[in-house]
């Protein structure tokens, strides 16, 4: 790797961690909304009426720290996923543009974004599983984390579900990452390039471009995100031969059962917090990322 390319990975990871920590409570409400209503004894009841109601109930019943349940694996995830996704995307794009002698070609950006999303999401999947499990459980009324910490959660999954449990949902996770990257990164670059004549390469350009990219990626990725979250959250003991009927056998089975029992609208559960979070997340990320690149 050339000397001028490695900082992109560092900047991507650092910017991602800051953005993740700043918006994590919204992500927790999104996860709670997405798992409720399943054919599951633990999550089958509709407890939250929306993002604000979920936020208030979690805060009142479990405490403020519960909104940060799963923050440890989330930050570890961004150190890997964020670094790889953005570093790989911009490195691939730069190399491809130089090879083809083009500038901001939509097809090139699209292809590089898909590759970066799939590679990074597949590698970071175990941290995503841990994050979802901890977010869904939160804390009990005494303020004790139900899965205690990330290490005990990891041990539980490894002992009862094996290594495959840590890569549960990797299919839809990679698909979601590919969709988000394919929409978010090229749209951001395209808008930023087109708005150069109006705003120049400054914070206003970065802000508007990131908001447009956020909305597009939220609309495109939410159905896959619901399936991914539900697959990651379900527990299954590998030593038990009897598989309960409500356990999803895979992405397609989860999609069919979700639509059948909850309707198509269920695929957009958590859309509001998804977009509300993606907007600030991308603004924080891209503003910091653009500033770091000037160093």
Walkthrough of the structure:
This protein is mostly helical and 295 residues long. It is 73% helix and 0% strand. Helix 3 packs antiparallel against helix 4 and helix 8 packs across helix 9.
Write the layout of secondary structure elements.
Layout: H1 6-35, H2 51-62, H3 71-100, H4 106-137, H5 150-166, H6 170-194, H7 196-199, H8 203-233, H9 251-262, H10 271-293
Helix pairs in contact: 1-2, 1-3, 1-10, 3-4, 4-5, 4-6, 6-8, 8-9, 8-10
Report, as a whole number of angstroms, the end-to-end distance: 19 Å
Structural class: mainly alpha
Let me know the number of strands: 0
The largest β sheet comes out as: none
Relative strand content = under 5%
Mind telling me the C-alpha Rg? 19 Å
Query: Unreliable stretches, pLDDT < 50, 5 or more residues?
Result: 141-145, 241-245
- Chain-averaged pLDDT: 85
Order of helices and strands: HHHHHHHHHH
What percent of the residues sit in helical stretches (DSSP H or I)?
A: over 70%
Q: What count of helical segments does DSSP give? A: 10
Give the tags:
73% helix, mainly alpha, 295 residues
What is the compact description of this entry?
By secondary structure, this protein is an all-alpha fold. The protein is built from ten helices and no strands.
């Amino acid at each position: 790797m050339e000397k001028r390319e490695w900082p992109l990975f560092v900047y991507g990871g650092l910017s991602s961690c800051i953005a993740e920590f700043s918006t994590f409570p919204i992500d927790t409400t999104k996860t709670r909304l997405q798992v409720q209503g399943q054919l599951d004894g633990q999550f089958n009841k509709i407890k939250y009426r929306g993002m604000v109601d979920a936020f208030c109930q979690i805060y009142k019943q479990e405490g403020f720290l519960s909104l940060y349940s799963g923050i440890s694996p989330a930050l570890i995830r961004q150190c890997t996923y964020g670094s790889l996704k953005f570093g790989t995307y911009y490195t691939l794009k730069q190399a491809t543009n130089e090879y083809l002698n083009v500038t901001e070609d939509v097809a090139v950006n699209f292809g590089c974004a898909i590759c970066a999303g799939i590679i990074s999401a597949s590698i970071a999947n175990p941290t995503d599983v841990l994050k979802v499990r901890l977010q869904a459980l939160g804390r009990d009324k005494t303020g004790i984390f139900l899965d205690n910490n990330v290490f005990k959660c990891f041990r539980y999954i490894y002992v009862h579900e094996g290594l495959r449990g840590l890569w549960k949902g990797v299919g839809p996770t990679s698909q979601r990452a590919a969709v988000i990257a394919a929409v978010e990164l090229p749209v951001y670059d395209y808008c930023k390039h087109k708005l150069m004549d109006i705003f120049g390469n400054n914070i206003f350009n970065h802000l508007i471009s990131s908001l447009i990219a956020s909305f597009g990626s939220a609309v495109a990725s939410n159905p896959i995100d619901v399936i991914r979250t539900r697959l990651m959250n379900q527990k299954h003991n590998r030593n038990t031969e009897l598989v309960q009927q409500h356990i999803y056998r895979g992405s397609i089975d989860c999609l069919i059962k979700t639509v059948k029992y909850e309707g198509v609208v269920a695929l957009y559960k958590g859309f509001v917090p998804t977009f509300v979070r993606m907007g600030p997340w991308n603004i924080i990320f891209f503003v910091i990322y653009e500033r770091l690149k000037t160093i």
